Amino acid sequence: MVMKLVLKVNDLHDPKSKRKALKTVSSIEGVDSLAVDKEKKTLTVVGNIVVYNVVKKLRKLMNVDIEAAGPNKEKNEEIPITYYYNSDYYPYHWPSFYTK
Q1: Per-residue CA distances from 5 to 12, 38, 62, 75, 81 (Å)
Q2: Residues of the chain under the 50 pLDDT cut
Q3: What is the pLDDT of residue 94?
Q4: What whole-number distance in Å separates Cα of residue 32 and Cα of residue 41?
Q5: Which of 13, 60, 64, 83 is the most buried (most CB within 10 A)?
Q6: How far apart are CA 6 and CA 66, in angstroms?
Q7: How far apart are CA 92 and CA 54, in angstroms?
Q8: Residue 2 contacts residue 46 (beta carbons within 8 Å)
Q9: What is the CA radius of gyration of the chain?
């Protein structure tokens, strides 16, 4: 599920701390987009993320509070179609979706 997380980061006062925060959060698997508002001192993370993992990583670097967390209503989530090929069922023939 695509989540939207808004974090209050009190240590966003210089470019170095902003760069550290963005680098840390962007390394987390499933992050689609990041946004920083220096006036409000907030960091917005959107993606297929676990809120606990994001907060845990950022709290190792700086003081972080959760302002809002929930499903992202702006983005419609599409479920990708995945085709599996199991050679046990088709030992000598390709499945029908490969032959078109």
Answers
A1: 17, 16, 17, 14, 27
A2: none
A3: 55
A4: 20
A5: 64
A6: 6
A7: 47
A8: yes
A9: 20
End-to-end CA distance of the chain: give it in Å, rounded: 33
pLDDT at 46: 92
Q: Which residues pair with 45 in a beta bridge?
A: 5, 34
CB neighbour class for 49 (10 Å; exposed up to 12, middle 13-18, buried from 19): buried
Q: Are 8 and 21 in contact (CB under 8 A)?
A: no
pLDDT, residue 24, reads 92
Q: What is the pLDDT of residue 54?
A: 92
> What does the pLDDT read at residue 71?
86
- Laid out side by side, the sheet with 42-47 consists of 31-37, 42-47, 3-9, 64-71
CA distance 71 to 25: 18
Report residue 26 CA to chain centroid gap: 8
